[in-house]
Amino acid sequence: MLVFAKIKSVQEKLKSLKNGTTIGFVPTMGALHEGHLSLVEKAKKENDIVVVSIFVNPTQFDNAEDLINYPKTIDKDLSLLKSTYCDIVFTPTPEEIYANDIQSQSFDFDGLEFQMEGKFRAGHFNGVGTIVERLFEIVKPHKAYFGEKDFQQIQIIRKMTEKRNLHVKIIACPIHREMDGLAMSSRNMRLTKEQRTAAPFIYETLKKAKDKFGTKNASEVVKWVENEFKNHPIFRLEYVEIADEDTLLPVETKNPAKKYRAFIAVFAGNVRLIDNISL
Ligand code: AMP
Fold this sequence. Notes:
Blueprint: E1 2-4, H1 7-15, E2 23-28, H2 34-46, E3 49-54, H3 64-69, H4 74-82, E4 88-90, H5 94-98, H6 117-120, H7 124-139, E5 143-147, H8 151-163, E6 169-173, H9 193-198, H10 200-213, H11 218-229, E7 235-244, E8 260-268, E9 271-278
Bound molecules: adenosine monophosphate.
Adenosine monophosphate binds at residues 28-29, 35-36, 38-39, 146-147, 149-150, 173, 175-176, 183-186.
């Protein structure tokens, strides 16, 4: 496994590959867990080589404290990647990516950016679009792998590749969960013991919401979830929404021809967790 911090070095290596070598790319912010590794494994099955980037992208953080507290475990990350099928790791610094101008470009994602995460994390998706486009430019992957844990992010990246005519296939990968149902996340390691013990409640509630969506309309299910979190001793609900998978707009009347998902964001203290479920 080769590790490069410089754009020039990783590009030289990629250019030296035999013509026709397919590249699978997995962008991450590090603090890796089995969820990330499942993306790497899928990428290796579908491509000749796998490139993983580890870069905590400052422009996608709307909250300075969250950026400072974001876990950084580079040595552990590299040894985990060594144990999988990763060929190349790209670990640039913010200066390498942004030079002296740590700023986002402004994107038009046809409104996808104004739903859910977009309502609560100002500028987040401009930061995501900026870094993902930049990394695509550097790595030039054939396929790029993203987790459904960040479902809105996948739809936004698909929209970006379509609108900017980028030649990369976006592959969505299922959410990897802990045994008790909690969606794996780098932020989970910041939970206290008490918060961690309570955390399966989030997915339990989503599963019950899915059952209820069989017989009730979306607004009734949303109200039911809101009520489950009302006065919860550990979690504060930021939002719950049932939305169309393609448009990400909240469902008004159910249409059997459409696919829907329930999306949730909650705070445990100052740790923000998100999850979603296909309905
Ligand atoms: P992050 O490092 O959190 O930016 O995540 C990097 C990639 O891993 C993103 O595409 C995430 O959606 C994906 N990912 C994070 N957690 C999970 C998970 N529990 N299951 C599947 N994919 C995940």
